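queue> holo job accepted (zinc ion)
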Amino acid sequence: MTSLLGTLAHSITVQPGTYGVDTIKQGQTLRIVDVEGGQVADFISMKHNDPTEYLDCAYTNMVNDRWRWLQGSRIVSNHLNPLWTITDDKTGVHFTGGGFCSNDARKKFLNPKDETKGCRDCLEEALAEYGIEPHFLQSVSCFNVFMNLEYLPNGSWQAKEPVTKAGDYIELRAEMDLLWAVSVCIWPFVSDGSPSPLRFEIYNPL
Ligand SMILES: [Zn+2]
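queue> job finished
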């Protein structure tokens, strides 16, 4: 399959409440597709074979002078090196404040007896597949793809339902060899109430 952005190398579909993890080479593009619409992902990445250099939302906001990233925005690491460029984005609505849902958070905010894994727990398992210790998972590294959170003028914030429709996507071109991982979030207030899968398509450049 060929598109304007290149040739599809492979794709991974990740079900809600589970994770996906993979590597990507410099120049390849990752397209994240909201298959049914209304779904949020906790997405992380780090330099391949070096978990000490990771996606950093705070520095990316600083470099771009904005917290809602755009097509053309560079996503940078904690050392300010470009990791990704956003090459297409159907909605432009994502959250870049960092932080994951977790079983700890589910116990605190939802049900003290809840044993369900959150995104942080899933991502720790994802990194373990590559022999990476949990302490390398940084809150500031979480790019909340498709999450619709608004900062309000009175200083509060408000989580809203995602605006994504079925088939909407964001495309990220890798600027170095990377490891990426994702947890497809089932936190009740950030998706549209019916968690659904996301598809991750990796394209080789033309
Ligand atoms: Zn989550």
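queue> Residues 32 and 200 are 5 Å apart (CA to CA).
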